[in-house]
Amino acid sequence: RPRAIRKPTAAFKEMVHFFFTPGAGLWAVILLLYKFGHASATGMLRPWLVDQGYSLEDIAWILGTGGFVAGFFGAMGGGWLAAKRDRTKLLVYLGAAQVLAIASYLWPVLTAHSSMKVLVAASLDHFTSGLATTTLFTLMMDASSKDRAASDYTAQACLIVISQSLATAFAGYSAQYFGYTAHFLISTAIAIAAVALTALILAAPRVRELLKPLIGRAGQLGAIGALILITCLMTPQSARAQTSDSSSTGSYEFGLGYGALLPGRTVKGIREIMEGFVARAARPTGSGFLEATLYASRGYGDTYSTFAVDYRALVWDDIFPTHAAAGLHFDAISPAGRPSRFTIGWQFGGGMQQPLGSSGLSLREDFSYRLGGGTSLLVLVGLSYELR
C-alpha cells in the first residue's frame, strides 16, 4: 500500500512543536540569554590578543591548548555533576561561576597583561563554560518530549546558535564603540543579568507564575520568528562582499569529516543514533557557496546514506566565521531485515568554520535539521581545505 505523503504543514508543526509545550516560552528566554554574555566576551578575546601584539604561537597555546584542555575537563566534570546533582539549581550555580570566569578577563585587560595571565583567565573561562554548557544541554534533553525528542532538541539547539551568533555580532560593535575594557564589563553585566533571570524563572515558582503571562507568549513567538527570519534573511552585505571576492579567485573547497545522525520517531526503521563519515565539495558563487555533501553510516544492521545539495552563505564572517545553509537531500535507507527505500526532503542549518593558519585548512562544525522521510538532526565535524 502506498505510503501517505506528509503535508508541509505537518512538517512545520513538527519543527515548532517545542515552542508550544507548557513552559517553553520561559525556557526559550533562558536559552537565548544564558550563554549570551559568555559568547560576547570570548568573541572579542582573540581580536584583543592580536591588538596587544600576541603572536600566532601565543594565541594557539592560550586558546588552542590551554582553553581546549580546560574545556574538555569542564565538559567531563559537567556531565558528572549533571548526573549527581539537581540540574536546575546546578544551572544557576554554574551560571554564577561563569560570571566570575568572564570577569577574570578584566585581570589582564586592566593590569599589565602577560601570556600567563591570559592563559589563566581563558582556562578558567573554558572550564566553567564546559561545566555550565553540559548542564544546559542535559536540561535541554530533559525538556524534549519523548515522542519528538529530535525535533524538540533541535529547536532548542537553534536558539543557542542564534544567541551566540547575535552575541558575537554585538561584541564586534560593542568593542568598536566602547573599547575593550568597557566591552568586557558590559559582557559581565549581561551575564549577571542572565543568571539572575535564570534563578528567578527556575528557582522561584511564584515569580515564575507572575512572569509567565508577560514573557511566555512573547518568548514563544519571538523564538519562532527568530528561528525562521534570522536563519533565512540575516546574511549581511559585508559577508556577501567577502564571498563575492572569494568567488573571483576561482577557489574550491573539499572536506572530510565524521558525524552522527539523530533520527526522529518518524524515520521509519532507524531507531538508534547512526555514526558515519562525510565528504564535501563546494564551489563559490556570486554570493555564497554551492555545496554537495555525501554522508554514509552503518550501525545496528542498518545502513543510511544521503546526498545533499545546499546553498551556504556566510553570516557575520567579518566578525565570527559562521554560516547558514539550506537545500535538498536524497536518502537511501536500508533497515535491518526490511526492504530498502529512497526518500527526498529539504533541510536547513548552520555552523562554524575556523581557519587553521594560512594554509587553507580549516576546522568545520555543522548541524542540519532535515525534513522529508521523517525528521532528523545531522551533526558533523571535520576538516576543509580551500584549493585555489
What's a concise summary of this model?
The chain has 12 helices and 8 strands. The relative contact order is 0.12. Helix content is 54%, strand content 26%.
What are the key terms here?
388 residues, single chain, alpha+beta, globular
Polypeptide structure, described:
The longest helix is centred in the middle third of the chain and has 30 residues, at 149-178. Helix 5 packs parallel to helix 8 (115-143), helix 6 (87-103) packs antiparallel against helix 8 and helix 6 runs antiparallel to helix 10 (180-203). 54% of the residues lie in helices and 26% in strands. By secondary structure, it is an alpha+beta fold. It has an 8-stranded antiparallel barrel with strand order 1-2-3-4-5-6-7-8.
In terms of structural class, how would the helical and strand content be classed?
A: alpha+beta
Amount of beta strand: 25-35%
Low-confidence stretches: 1-8, 214-249
- Count of beta strands: 8
Radius of gyration: 21 Å
Q: What topology, given as strand order, has the largest sheet?
A: 1-2-3-4-5-6-7-8
From the spread of the alpha carbons, the general shape counts as globular
Order of helices and strands: HHHHHHHHHHHHEEEEEEEE
How many helix segments?
12
Q: What is the average per-residue confidence, as pLDDT, rounded to a whole number?
A: 77
Helix content: 40-55%
What's the end-to-end separation, in Å?
51 Å
- Largest beta-sheet details: 8 strands, antiparallel, barrel
